[in-house]
Amino acid sequence: MNCVVIDENIEDLKSLVTKINAFPSLHIVGRFSNYIDAKLHINKNQVDIIIIEISKDHESCFSFLDSLTKNIKIIFTSHDAQFAFRAFNYNCVDYLKKPISEERFKKAINKLNNLSQKNNGNHIYVKSKLKKKKIYLTNIKWIEALGDYIRLITISENVVMLSSLKSFEKELPKDKFMRIHKSYIVNLEKIETFDSKYVFIDSEKIPLSRNKKVELDSALTFKSNQ
Questions:
Q1: Distance CA 81, CA 92 (A)
Q2: pLDDT score for 177
Q3: More confident residue, 15 or 116
Q4: Diameter over CA atoms, the chain
């Protein structure tokens, strides 16, 4: 996996690079002490995992992550554990409190490797009610935002989990799922009909933003021609 490391402390950055180099599954493709250079590099290269420090200017860190459009897993590092809850609204694999021991870092990378193996297929694992739950993508009908949570509507059950819709969207294949409204993502294969205001799945009405209608029409036309 291609890895980018971001830490404003040069010594901590060097220490992380040394730890990463001990794992054959990780290949460092960039190391940065600022977000601007990191973003330019990430936009131009294939990156699978970002190991990033939450510095004193924590808002800049989260703003940087909000600006990314690629589906990239995150390992956070910080001297302070107070941002751990917020960090898991992102595509967070682990949260490491500094100073980071070799053993703790190894656990984080093992978790990353296991997660990557599980997600290489037609399913994802989501955390709900303190448990990891396997969800087959083909069973998801739509996803809706519920404040700090989201709800997955599947053919057999509804699953509520702590996440933002934007973060979860990055976990989904773009050729199968589409965000049609600020609060809704739908499985394109489950759509029965749609009009200028709504998408219909199993007779349920889901709001369709006016500026998404043309994009949805194009996506469905493309799928029907495949």
A1: 14
A2: 93
A3: 15
A4: 58
- Inter-residue contact 141 to 152 (CB < 8 Å): no
Q: Tokens 């297929």 belong to which residue?
A: 121
Q: Which helix (H) or strand (E) holds 14?
A: helix 10-20
Q: How far apart are CA 30 and CA 6, in angstroms?
A: 8
Conformational region of residue 182, where left means phi above 0, alpha means psi within -120 to 50, and beta covers everything else: alpha
DSSP code of residue 71: -
How far apart CA 45 and CA 123 sit, in angstroms, is 26
Question: Hey, what are 186's tokens?
Answer: 């739908």
Residues 68 and 51: their CA atoms lie apart, in Å, by: 14
Long-range contacts of 93-96 (CB under 8 A, 24+ apart): 93/49
| Tokens 């694992």, located at residue | 125
Tokens standing for 126?
């989501």
CB 16 within 8 A of CB 30: no
The continuous run of DSSP H or E covering 86 comes out as: helix 84-87
- Can you give the pTM of this predicted structure? 0.56
Cα dihedral 35/40/44/47 (nearest 10): 0
Name the DSSP letter for residue 101.
P
Q: For residue 51, how many other CB atoms are within 10 A of its CB? A: 29
Task: Please give the distance of CA 21 from its chain centroid, rounded to a whole number.
Answer: 24
